[in-house]
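A reminder before we start the practical. When you read a complex entry, don't treat the lines as separate problems. The point of joint prediction is that each chain is placed relative to the others, so the output describes one connected object in space. Small molecules and nucleic acid strands, if listed, are placed in the same frame. In the example below there are two entries. Take a minute to note the order of the lines before looking further.
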Amino acid sequence: MSKDNNQTPLPSEGAGGRKNWPLWEVFVRSKNGLEHRHFGSLHAADAEMALENARDVYTRRNEGVSIWVVESKNITASNPEHNGELFEPAQDKVYRHPTFYDLPDEVKHM
Amino acid sequence: MNFNLYKYILGISDNSLILGQRMGALTGHGPSLETDIACTNISLDLFGQVRSYYQYAAKIADDGRTEDDIAMLRKEREYLNVLLVEQPDTDFAFTMARQFLFDVYHLLFLTELQKNKDLTLSAIATKSMKEVSYHQRFSSDWIKRLGDGTEESHLKMQDAIDTLWTYTDELFHQTEADKIMVSEGIGVDVTKLKDNYYQKVNNVLEEATLKIPESKYFQKGGKEGIHTEHMGYLLSDLQYMQRTYPNMEW
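Here is the predicted structure of the whole assembly.
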């Protein structure tokens, strides 16, 4: 019955241990009506644990009303080396911004 | 003062204080950053509940002591928590098994306490229930993960459940103060929670592919202030600052 007193639990580093936990990206909706925004990332063994961890890590100060998690490997990202061809051609084309229209006040978050 | 009501409140809140201290002591030592924060959150939830209970107890006692005095300056024999919550963090399976075995009881208890005619206790119970529902979900998940995990995690979780099982029966033991409060319509009759408790616990253990312990030998004493050898160490951590620098604040 009597085990070592106050021993700190040791993390499991073996197969299936936390080092093998995949990375997840966390998106949180701050309040109803707003879109989910990327809040950060964390490690978890599966989606369920990722949601619980996200709840504890990112919404403990009342930051959200809804959480999405997605495993980071499922996100396809653009290659920073291609930034020139992808984004620079748009820099001198201000006429593509809809800034020449008068928006009614009722349209928010445009 | 209503001494029975005072003792009754301590009997509830000391469980949360001591379990909160156990979980809080893990801050920075959790198995992963995310789990560490989760355990600290649980600890903070419990301390929040504790403050409400002790503020009420201080009002009932009406002898000049504050909530802090009640929390920090009693002697070991004056703490009325169950033995379960003071058991050490032998490994993470023990931490989660202790949490789970208490959470299931805690939620059943608060559900009844909520119906109380003592409006202060009823309000604290209502506020605490959402927190404790989450604690139970979190700890149940870990019982299933480790129980139905690898061969090693299964063995460790089974060991934790087998070891801590002996402290579960005390949850349903009634002290004299309990009986008097029940007869006055304020206390919760914990003996009535027992069947429901073991059914809920057993369901999770089965899902976790763990064996339900068959031992019929149970330890009790914490509710009467008679604690296991772990309690003294825990209190010396908890009380160190107030004992060394009396009345210090920061």
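Discuss with your neighbour: The domain at 18-74 of chain A is CATH 3.10.20.520 (Ubiquitin-like (UB roll)). What might explain this?
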